[in-house]
Specification:
By secondary structure, the chain is α+β, with helices and mostly antiparallel strands. It is built from 11 helices and 12 strands. The chain has helices at about 5, 10-20, 75-90, 110-130, 185-195, 205-210, 215-225, 240-250, 265-270, 275-280, 295-300; strands at about 35-40, 45-50, 55-65, 95-105, 130-140, 145-155, 175-180, 230-235, 250-255, 285-290, 305-315, 320-325. The strands form 2 sheets. It has a 6-stranded mixed β-sheet with strand order 1-2-3-6-4-5, covered by helices on one side. Helix 3 runs parallel beside helix 4 (about 110-130) and helix 3 runs parallel beside helix 7. The protein is globular. It starts with a helix and ends in a 24-residue tail after the last strand.
Length: about 350
């Protein structure tokens, strides 16, 4: 089997199964009772309980030619986004960021001024949302990449006295499904950029969504405080990520396509494709979550971003279905982002 045949998500499953079979916890040589992970591979971040409380750890890499093109992306925006995608994972766990380390893989012909401006973007994201960069590594590489590893901390107490954590595997039949913000803007912004079009007042929102995404840290805190337990961020498309959440929880989902929130800018720019972009477009970095209807209603009144209920959690035998206003199934493939089935980068 080749990587491109397995695909990203099956590859992750195989690697996780290998670690489990070989003893993923490793050997403790410290002579102390090292904290055991509460959640590991398969969620937005790993979770463990230690003397300092409940902590999470996540990492994301951005590779030139795969995640960004320097001809389309400003250096400062690149730095902002590298932090934002990790901040979004921390938010999806109901936590706040503490610190990060950054690894740079650099070609020798990259401009130092550009890298400095990139770090200004990272610092700007930290000033806006918390946490700080405390170290990292620089290596020579034929392909420019940057990788951020970020730690977060649970500041909301759960019913057991530990940190309240949001997780993919906690959805229950009878929950309603909800999302923050609007979906598809980032995918729309990428299309506009790749087409070589100039962004203007009618597409500025799409540009911001793709190049300067806002991680929903405040919303994640409010979800944890309200007692929501099932959540993840939407990085690989609504249908794809909802499928992951349902698989982790052993449930199915019924989504009302007409209720999926999409901005007027997306609808105007892509009148025939906006729903497809909202359902399968990646890099939204909004939060997808489930909970009892009254709990979700209370959350929607307590946070400063729109919350939209789009469906219900059902029996696993139903799978994940998107329906139109008549109740007919909408043809919405899982879509989203898979590193190894997306064009030249996956060949």
């Amino acid at each position: 089997m080749l990587v491109r045949d397995a695909g990203e998500f099956r590859l992750i499953e195989l690697l996780a199964e290998t670690l489990a079979a070989e003893g993923a916890e490793g050997q403790d040589f410290t002579g102390t009772d090292a904290p055991k992970p509460l959640a590991g591979i398969g969620d937005d971040a790993a979770v463990w309980e230690g003397e300092g409380g409940t902590r999470v750890l996540t990492t994301d890499a951005m590779v030139e030619g795969v995640h960004f093109e320097l001809g389309l992306t400003r250096w400062r925006d690149l730095g902002w986004k590298a932090m934002a995608v990790n901040l979004s994972d921390v938010a999806a766990m109901g936590c706040l960021p503490t610190c990060s380390v950054v690894t740079l893989g650099l070609r020798g012909n990259l401009p130092v001024e550009g890298l400095v401006d990139m770090y200004r973007g990272m610092a700007e994201a930290c000033r806006s949302h918390g946490g700080r960069v405390v170290g990292g590594d620089v290596v020579r590489s034929p392909v420019f990449f940057l990788s951020v590893a970020m730690e977060g901390q649970a500041n909301i107490k759960g019913p057991d006295g530990g940190g309240a954590i949001l997780a993919r595997g906690a959805a229950e039949i009878g929950d309603v499904i909800a999302v923050t913000g609007s979906l598809g803007d980032s995918a729309g912004g990428l299309r506009v950029a790749l087409a070589g079009e100039r962004f203007d007042d009618s597409t500025g929102r799409l540009h911001t969504a793709h190049f300067r995404p806002e991680p929903r840290l405040v919303a994640g805190q409010e979800l944890a405080r309200a007692g929501i337990r099932a959540a993840m961020d939407i990085s690989d498309g609504l249908v794809g990520d909802l499928t992951k959440l349902c698989e982790a929880s052993g449930v199915g989902a019924a989504v009302r396509g007409d209720d999926v929130p999409a901005s007027q800018e997306l609808r105007r720019r892509f009148p025939d494709e906006w729903l497809s972009l909202a359902l399968t477009g990646g890099e939204n970095y909004e939060l997808l979550f489930t909970g009892r209807e009254e709990t979700v209603r209370g959350v929607s009144e307590s946070i400063d971003v729109p919350v939209t209920t789009i469906g219900e959690i059902v029996e696993a035998t139903h799978g994940v279905r998107v329906m139109d206003v008549k109740g007919d199934t909408v043809d919405a493939e899982r879509g989203g982002w898979d590193h190894f089935v997306k064009g030249p980068a996956g060949e």
